[in-house]
Amino acid sequence: MLDTYQSNLDVALSSAKESLDSALEVRAAELAGLIDGYWRIIAPSYEARFGAEQRELIDASVDGVAGDLRSLDTAGLEGALPSLTE
After folding, report:
1. Is residue 78 left, alpha or beta, with left meaning phi > 0 and alpha meaning psi from -120 to 50?
2. Best CA proximity match to 67, nearest among 27, 33, 22
3. How confident is the model at residue 44 (pLDDT cuts 50, 70, 90)?
4. What pLDDT was estimated at residue 86?
């Protein structure tokens, strides 16, 4: 089940920049919620596997990406996305 959520998170992350490039404000807000929600579902398992410190790093990155999407900050998003997609 967690693989499904991870896959959904990956899809949402890959769609994030496109939504801002296309000025799709509603889609950007939707993706912000999806990214945040999917991460919150898989975060406990991630922490169990990689530790609390690594989870805190990803928590901060997810918060940054979601915030950039909500504020339609393309430059911020471009800086934050690589930490979650690479």
Report:
1. alpha
2. 33
3. very high
4. 67
